[in-house]
Amino acid sequence: MPEICRFYGIIIKMYFADHAPPHFHAYYGEHEAVIDIRTFAVLKGNLPPRALGMVTEWAAQHQQELLTLWERASRYQPLYKLPPLQ
Questions:
Q1: Which terminal Cβ of the chain has fewer Cβ within 10 Å, N or C?
Q2: Which residue, among 3, 26, 18, has the nearest Cα to 71 in the 3D structure?
Q3: pLDDT tens per residue, range 22-38
Q4: Residue 85 belongs to some domain of the structure
Q5: Is residue 30 part of a domain?
Q6: pTM: predicted TM-score of the whole model, two decimal places
Q7: Taking a C-beta distance cutoff of 8 angstroms, is the pair 33, 42 a contact?
């Protein structure tokens, strides 16, 4: 599963040919959450509130790029890294 971003100890990854809806995986320490790209809702798992807030803020800044990466991943095309939360 390619890593597409890393910031403040949070790692964002996306699987190739993953199930709908469009989402990404966020890891922070022993925590993992699956985040919907369109709504930013947590589909599975959990993150500490502060980490979830940062992930949501980052995802809102890069929503269109995340949807593009989702489409690329669905076609097994190479993914690229996105800038971290500043």
A1: C
A2: 18
A3: 999 999 999 999 999 99
A4: no
A5: yes
A6: 0.95
A7: yes
